[in-house]
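Researcher: Structure for this, please.
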Amino acid sequence: MRIVRAADYRRMPWKNGGGATTEVAIAPANATLDDFDWRISMAHVATPGPFSRFPGIDRTLAVLHGHGIRLTVADTPAVTLTPTSPPHVFPGDADAAATLVDGPIDDLNVMSRRDRYRHRMTRHRVTEAIAVPLDAEAIITMPRGGGIECIINGAVTQIGDGESGAIGRAEYERMNAREMTIRPVRDAESTTGIDLYLIGFWRR
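Model: Predicted structure, token format:
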């Protein structure tokens, strides 16, 4: 499993020029905003406004920090997203805009080109070990509020708070592994869980 340190994330402007985003991972590795297969990024949103449009792209959005946003996509009713809400899926080529509930937020954004890949992002409150099937083309783990250990066939990889871990199909098939165990790493006296964002990409 490859660890992506927070210091290695790439900061770049939004497509619409209205702010900046922190790119966590992109495929292919040399892709741009116009030709990626999939992309994971984070953004600090301090003002309301429209989202960048991405033709042919499916998006999933989650709020990491802050009180939340109200997201309106095309003519659908507004959806309020908070740090405890499930990630929200919407088409990247639709008109979308957000207003802030009460101050700035940090969000996590996953995108995939719908004719090449599909993706899924889930949020878990991890208090004990969980089993994750290894069945996607790429799997990314992102803990927040503490670190985790990812265990595959007895091999342990530690992912720190704010970092990311990534594994691809070629690697886990080479290990003849079908499942990954994820368990929290926390102080012995701590009883609180860790927020884990689990992201998978499947080739069409």
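Researcher: Any notable elements?
Model: Helices lie at 169-174. Residues 176 and 199 are 21 Å apart (CA to CA).
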